[in-house]
Write a structure and sequence with these properties.
- This protein is α/β, with parallel strands linked by helices.
- It folds into 2 domains: 188 residues, FAD/NAD(P)-binding domain, CATH 3.50.50; 123 residues, 3-Layer(bba) Sandwich (FAD/NAD(P)-binding domain).
- It is 28% helix and 25% strand.
- A 5-stranded parallel β-sheet has the order 3-2-1-7-18, with helices on one face. Strands 11-10-9-15 form a 4-stranded parallel β-sheet, with helices on one face. Strands 4-5-6 form a 3-stranded antiparallel β-sheet.
- It starts with a strand and ends in a 26-residue tail after the last helix.
- It is an enzyme of class 1 (oxidoreductase).
């Protein structure tokens, strides 16, 4: 009987891991199944563009996985049972249970409402394709001068506000943040950011905490009502509660607790990658939930899975964080380098060049999903251990 590998999620981390494993493990020994709610590979880093009204390239997972032998299961993950090694999924035909020998958990993250009343009922977001399309439909309904309020001061909030302002100049865009906009940036990058907001005519409300969301207003802690026709909630991200409910050991924020090779500390046959995993970076700080986490965590997880199942030595993975890359519409952007302690360096790459570099990086990431072993020897490793596999030795 083949060793059953089930991968939950087909975002950047999940899809890349699936295709990499399929091209490295012998099909006679392994069976790989990917469960994903969407039939397509969704470029989450471009969802603010989709919400703004732009069309994104269609990337069916059947095409991404073509020729790999991966079994795609379009379904929504509703639960896992780590003790009995099963995953519960739901689709149009009902509920089903999948059994696994090895599980890779890559379900990513969703919006963090921070317990603020009204977010689920009244706010829009861009953390998933259906949500971005829902926001897009709402924006299409607005007349000239319609008001949109973006709640949040992080990278996604900044990108969403500027994208909407550029793509829909007839709308009045505002952004509200509990701190100072771009406070983590260096002087040059922050000046560039503020100039961009001025150019787009985006109204900024700093040092304003939102305590309640209503249908047409966000209510601040001091009682001020910031009225809007659409409220876009991008005030951080949170992981799905499925891991904790399934018996995996998690951190206080719900991220899966793993060793340095992305192996669950409570269930060694479960691995995690992407936003779902809690890992300390090389600088001693928690690795951020961001596009930057998908590459290193999926690389570490796939290396560990291959090593544990085939007896090969697992090479360590570096978890460095170079900086923040922010798009400011399609023709502007900035890249802020950080030092070893995660603090902004004085200089920054700004303007059209920064925008082009980021666009190229995102396009390369999408291409890499279906070409994970490009330029590497095409080895197919055989199963060398039983399903009760023991963790392999790390190199170094």
């Amino acid at each position: 009987m083949k060793h059953r590998i089930v991968i939950l999620g087909a975002g950047y981390a999940g899809a890349f891991s699936a295709t990499f494993l399929a091209r490295r493990l012998h099909p006679g020994d392994f069976e790989i199944t990917v469960v994903n709610a969407e039939p397509d590979f969704v470029e989450r880093l471009r969802l603010h563009q989709l919400a703004a009204g732009q069309e994104l390239r269609h990337r069916p997972l059947t095409k991404v996985f073509a020729g790999t032998g991966i079994q795609l299961r379009p379904a929504r993950v509703t639960g896992i049972d780590a003790e009995h090694r099963t995953v519960t999924v739901a689709d149009g035909d009902g509920v089903d249970r999948l059994e696994y020998d090895t599980l890779l958990y890559a379900l990513g993250s969703t919006i963090a409402d921070h317990g603020v009343p009204g977010v689920d009922e009244h706010a829009y977001h861009v953390a998933a394709r259906p949500a971005a399309l829902r926001l897009r439909a709402r924006l299409d309904e607005l007349d000239e001068g319609g008001r949109v309020l973006v709640v949040g001061g992080n990278l996604t909030a900044i990108e969403t506000a500027t994208e909407l302002a550029e793509s829909r100049p007839g709308l009045r865009i505002g952004l509200v943040t509990r701190g100072e906009l771009g406070a983590w940036l260096g002087p040059e990058a922050r000046r560039h950011l503020l100039r961009a907001f001025d150019r787009f005519g985006i109204t900024v409300h700093e040092y304003t905490a939102i305590e309640r969301v209503e249908k047409a207003a966000a209510i601040a802690a001091d009682g001020t009502a910031l009225t809007a026709d659409a409220i876009v909630w991008v005030a951080g991200f949170a992981v799905h509660p499925i891991a904790a409910a399934g018996g995996l050991r998690v951190e206080s924020n719900g991220q899966i607790t793993v060793d340095r090779q992305m192996r669950s500390v409570s269930h060694p046959n479960v691995y995690a990658a992407g936003d779902s995993v809690f890992v300390i970076g090389d600088n001693g700080l928690p690795y951020p939930m961001s596009c930057a986490s998908a590459g290193p965590t999926s690389k570490a997880a796939t290396a560990a899975i291959i090593g544990d199942l085939t007896g090969r030595k697992v090479a360590p993975t570096a978890f460095s964080h170079l900086g923040n890359h922010i798009s400011l519409g399609r023709n502007d952007g900035l890249f802020q380098l950080v030092d070893g302690d995660g603090r902004a360096k004085p200089g920054a790459l700004c303007g059209r060049t920064a925008a082009r570099v980021k666009s190229a990086i995102i396009s390369a990431a999408a291409w890499a999903v279906s070409h994970p072993t490009f330029g590497k020897p095409n080895h197919r490793y055989r199963l060398a251990v039983t399903r009760e596999h023991a963790p392999s030795r790390a190199a170094g």
